[in-house]
Design a protein that fits this description.
Radius of gyration: 19 Å
Order of helices and strands: EHEHEHEHEHHEEE
Number of strands: 8
CATH topology: Rossmann fold
Helix content: 25-40%
Strand order of the largest sheet: 3-2-1-4-5-8-6-7
CATH architecture: 3-Layer(aba) Sandwich
CATH class: Alpha Beta
């Protein structure tokens, strides 16, 4: 057709958003969010992880695939630091803060959640995924992921640090974050893809906004209210 540009432009739904990927590891999530148009900061306390993410970005030539003059703006900025320290340096500066499979590794989830609250804008979103403190959570994360499928090195997880969905909601509440939704996460070994489910008994993810605790949260079938984080 005359006068029509046949070039198909890729819609970038996250354009205009500044997103923080806490515990970014090798940068898989960070790169995916960047390709969707977000300005992404990948944060990890491990220097080796940050270097691996930077190397991966160079090798994939992220941001240069389309020959965009503004390609530097679409590249992920990787930082070696903790969420607590970055919160002091850049408070309330992110539209979205993601902490996927991180909180079960920290020393004190309450301190960590407070850092997430400090990093997100007052009208922003926080996403936290973790492993449920249940027998199925232990079997899935340790027995299956570490010993059978060997998806992660043995000893990666400490079941004593797993959180029930109700515990996570309480931890977030104490930090000033209101849990809006929770969903289970299920991994398909054949397709190598994750999907959301109603089962919170193994892996699950929560979204939260600035606010207070919602008492009628769905709980995993095995869940009991643990008093550790209510004092």
């Amino acid at each position: 057709m005359h006068g029509v540009d046949n070039k198909i432009s890729f819609v970038k739904p996250l354009s205009g958003l500044r997103i923080l990927d806490v515990g970014c590891g090798g940068g898989l999530l960070s790169e995916s969010l960047s390709r969707l148009g977000a300005q992404v900061v990948g944060l990890d306390a491990g220097k080796e992880n940050v270097e691996a993410a930077k190397r991966r970005q160079r090798e994939s030539q992220l941001g240069e695939e389309d020959g965009d003059e503004d390609s530097d703006d679409t590249k992920v900025k990787y930082i070696c630091d903790t969420a607590e320290d970055l919160g002091e340096k850049e408070p309330h500066s992110f539209d979205v803060v993601c902490a996927l499979e991180v909180i079960e590794h920290v020393t004190d989830p309450r301190v960590f959640a407070s850092a997430l609250r400090k990093l997100v804008k007052d009208d922003g979103l926080v996403f936290v995924s973790t492993i449920s403190k249940s027998m199925r959570g232990v079997l899935g994360a340790i027995v299956f992921a570490e010993r059978v499928a060997r998806m992660v090195p043995a000893g990666t997880h400490d079941p004593n640090k797993f959180l029930h969905p109700s515990e996570l909601a309480i931890v977030l509440e104490r930090a000033g974050l209101k849990t809006n939704t929770m969903a289970g996460m299920e991994y398909n070994l054949l397709t190598k893809q994750w999907k959301l489910t109603d089962d919170l008994g193994i892996n699950y993810i929560a979204s939260a906004t600035v606010g207070t605790f919602e008492e009628d949260l769905p709980l995993a079938q095995e869940d009991v209210h643990d008093k550790r984080y209510q004092d």
